[in-house]
């Protein structure tokens, strides 16, 4: 029921128009945009029917009473339920009876207070919208003039204009002081230098399977398989293992040489076996998903996708550039080896901007 359906004499004495409802300014030459004001106020059923208002009042009181009962139950549970008693609650299984009772009663007590307050506000409190005009926040001209005069007076009394020696040394002290903060930056540790641009891969390092810890031969790599490798000599119990593997982690995949479209990729591979950095060039997550049919690898963090048959270029997602490729070959004993380090920094593109 809206106020339009109610006879005028039954409406409450308060009129919405008193609060700026309806148009409050018309357009003219000085002000070409009319202020539409607030929409007409609609009376709620509780505003015009005392019985409905009483019903709402009872609902609110009932919710507040429920909250009181729940609080009493909370205290009673705390006092009476032993600490080690457990109960079965589907689907949680066996849980502490005390924790369950405390959680439930506290939850009901808080919920009932909130629900009661919301129902009270929505049905019984005044819902007339009021436009409150903003006042200018600028200070009065007299106040501004006084502040300026006080400032000039202060400057004059400090004799800063006359005492040039004090003024010069003060500015010197203020300018130098922040340098002490700059010096503290040294505590962040030694500068990384070029360390982040290189990995421990070098010419002749064997490609070692991270799972078996054995060097790999080309015959160990089946077409379509994905294998994770580390450089020979890097062991898990090495002190700097995490630091080094974070840059040197490599994945190798065997493709049919005919499927490799990128000429450099083909030249840096061995019998279709290609080795790429496993560190995503977006923000450095380890790449782990390989789609055999499409030759795509996918980063699980933000779904960047790289095409391993085409120089690992980015075909989808936020990564900024292709995965760096490691040039590989086979040594005299038939093991896969690196033919050098990566020729670009691995991981996020940040280092390329330096
Ligand atoms: S870290 Fe790989 S897509 Fe974001």
Description:
- The protein is an alpha+beta fold.
- The chain has three domains: 3-123, no CATH class; 141-177, no CATH class; 196-353, Rieske Iron-sulfur Protein.
- Helix content is 32%, strand content 14%.
- The chain is built from eight helices and 13 strands.
- It has helices spanning 45-48, 50-80, 97-123, 141-158, 164-176, 178-184, 241-248, 263-267; strands at residues 86-89, 93-96, 207-209, 226-231, 250-254, 273-277, 289-291, 296-298, 305-307, 313-316, 325-326, 328-330, 336-338.
- It has a five-stranded antiparallel β-sheet. A four-stranded antiparallel β-sheet has the order 7-8-9-10, with no helix packed on it.
- A hairpin with a 5-residue loop joins strand 9 and strand 10.
- Helix 2 (50-80) runs antiparallel to helix 3.
- Mean pLDDT is 87; it is low at 15-19.
- This is Cytochrome bc1 complex Rieske iron-sulfur subunit.
- Residues 1-42 are annotated as: Disordered.
Let me know the largest β-sheet.
Answer: 5 strands, antiparallel
Give the ligands present: FE2/S2 (inorganic) cluster
Please report the first level of CATH classification, the CATH class of the largest domain: Mainly Beta
If helices are DSSP runs of H or I spanning 4 or more residues, what is the number of helices?
Answer: 8
* Percent of residues in helices: 25-40%
Return Rg in Å: 38 Å
Q: Which structural class do the helices and strands define?
A: alpha+beta
The stretches of 5 or more residues where confidence is low (pLDDT under 50) are 15-19
**Strand percentage, roughly?**
5-15%
Q: In order across it, which strands form the biggest sheet?
A: 3-4-5-6-11
CATH homologous superfamily placement of the largest domain? Rieske [2Fe-2S] iron-sulphur domain
* Bulk shape: extended
Q: Which fold name fills CATH's third level, the topology of the largest domain?
A: Rieske Iron-sulfur Protein
The number of distinct structural domains comes to: 3
CATH architecture of the largest domain: 3-layer Sandwich
Please give the alpha-carbon distance between the first and last residues. Answer: 69 Å
**H and E string:** HHEEHHHHEEHEHEEEEEEEE
């Amino acid at each position: 029921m809206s106020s339009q359906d109610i006879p005028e004499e039954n409406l409450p004495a308060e009129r919405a128009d008193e609060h700026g409802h309806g148009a409050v300014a018309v357009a003219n030459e000085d002000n070409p945009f009319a202020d539409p004001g607030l929409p007409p106020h609609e009376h709620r059923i509780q505003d015009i029917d005392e019985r409905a208002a009483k019903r709402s009042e009872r609902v609110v009181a009932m919710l507040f009473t429920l909250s009181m009962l729940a609080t009493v139950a909370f205290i009673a549970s705390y006092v009476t339920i032993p600490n080690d008693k457990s109960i079965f609650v589907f689907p949680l299984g066996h849980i502490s009876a005390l924790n369950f009772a405390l959680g439930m009663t506290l939850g009901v007590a808080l919920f009932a207070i909130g629900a009661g307050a919301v129902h009270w506000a929505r049905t019984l409190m005044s819902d007339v919208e009021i436009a409150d005009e903003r006042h200018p926040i600028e200070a009065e001209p007299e106040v501004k003039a006084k502040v300026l005069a006080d400032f000039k007076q202060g400057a004059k009394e400090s004799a800063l204009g006359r005492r040039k020696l004090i003024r010069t040394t003060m500015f010197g002290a203020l300018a130098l002081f922040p340098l002490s903060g700059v010096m503290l930056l040294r505590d962040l540790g030694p500068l990384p230098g070029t360390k982040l641009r290189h990995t421990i891969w070098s010419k002749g390092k064997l490609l070692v399977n991270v799972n078996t810890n054995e060097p790999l031969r080309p015959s160990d790599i089946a077409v379509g398989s994905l294998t994770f490798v580390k450089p020979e000599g890097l062991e898990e119990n090495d002190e700097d293992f995490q630091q080094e593997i974070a840059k040197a982690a490599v994945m190798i995949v065997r493709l049919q040489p005919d499927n490799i479209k990128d000429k450099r990729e083909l030249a840096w591979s061995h019998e279709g076996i290609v080795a790429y950095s496993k560190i995503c060039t977006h923000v450095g997550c380890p790449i782990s998903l390989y789609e055999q049919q499409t030759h795509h690898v996918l980063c699980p963090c933000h779904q960047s996708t790289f095409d391993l048959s085409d120089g690992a270029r980015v075909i989808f997602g936020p990564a900024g550039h292709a995965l760096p490729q490691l040039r590989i070959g086979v040594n005299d004993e038939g093991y896969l080896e690196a033919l050098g380090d990566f020729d670009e920094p691995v991981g996020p593109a940040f280092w390329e901007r330096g």
